[in-house]
């Protein structure tokens, strides 16, 4: 819920309130579940290609989206996103 600069809050991303900066877009950080992973654990899981932890997190996310009958949206992974500084 709380912004931790330079990271936006996960809440702002989920609710569509976050607008990525030019720097964010250049780093591959665009709205979607992938940037949530980047906010939470980007320094470990993002920016180095396929990561099993990220793949598992996406699987859990999809499972709960299916249970609630909602779409996944785009940008599910952070494989090519640079972590927030």
TrEMBL record:
EC supergroup of this enzyme: hydrolase
InterPro entries from the UniProt entry: Glyco_hydro_19_cat, Lysozyme-like_dom_sf
Domain annotation Glycoside hydrolase family 19 catalytic: ranges: 1-78
EC number(s) reported in the record: 3.2.1.14
Keywords in alphabetical order: Carbohydrate metabolism, Glycosidase, Hydrolase, Polysaccharide degradation
One Pfam family here: Glyco_hydro_19
One GO molecular-function entry: endochitinase activity
Catalytic activity: Random endo-hydrolysis of N-acetyl-beta-D-glucosaminide (1->4)-beta-linkages in chitin and chitodextrins
One example of a Gene Ontology biological process annotation: cell wall macromolecule catabolic process
Superkingdom of the source species: Eukaryota
UniProt-recorded name of the protein: chitinase
Originating organism: Triticum turgidum subsp. durum (Durum wheat)
Classification lineage: Eukaryota, Viridiplantae, Streptophyta, Embryophyta, Tracheophyta
